[in-house]
């Protein structure tokens, strides 16, 4: 299965979102790294799927679950990249 071009856009936006949320979480909760990482992941899930739900409800844009999945995968990749920098 090949990803269409717009899935790659969601993936790249997800990377930036996950990296930002991971870095912000560790900055805001410096003594609670697991909590910060969990909160960043839940926020990535909520934003990614929430954007698709917004498209479905308002009729603006195109609702597609694979767009949310691509953003979530990208978000996790961004979080992992920041975690590797923060831990090493």
Residue fraction in strands? under 5%
Low-confidence stretches: none
Overall mean confidence score, pLDDT:
94
Q: Which descriptor suits the 3D outline?
A: globular
- Order of helix and strand elements from N to C terminus: HHH
Biggest beta sheet attributes:
none
Task: Provide the gyration radius in Å.
Answer: 14 Å
Q: Give me the count of strands.
A: 0
DSSP summary: helix tally: 3
- Helix proportion of residues, in percent? over 70%
Euclidean distance between termini CA atoms: 35 Å
Structural class: mainly alpha
Can you describe this structure?
This protein has 88 residues and is mostly helical. Helices cover 83% and strands 0% of the residues. It contains 3 helices and no strands. The radius of gyration is 14 Å and the shape is globular. The mean pLDDT is 94.
């Amino acid at each position: 299965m090949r990803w269409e071009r717009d899935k790659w856009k969601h993936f790249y936006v997800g990377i930036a979102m996950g990296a930002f949320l991971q870095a912000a979480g560790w900055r805001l909760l410096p003594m609670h790294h697991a909590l910060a990482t969990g909160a960043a992941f839940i926020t990535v899930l909520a934003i990614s799927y929430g954007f698709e739900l917004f498209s479905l409800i308002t009729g603006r844009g195109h609702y597609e679950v694979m767009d949310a999945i691509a953003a979530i995968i990208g978000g996790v990749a961004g979080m992992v990249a920041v975690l590797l920098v923060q831990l090493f």
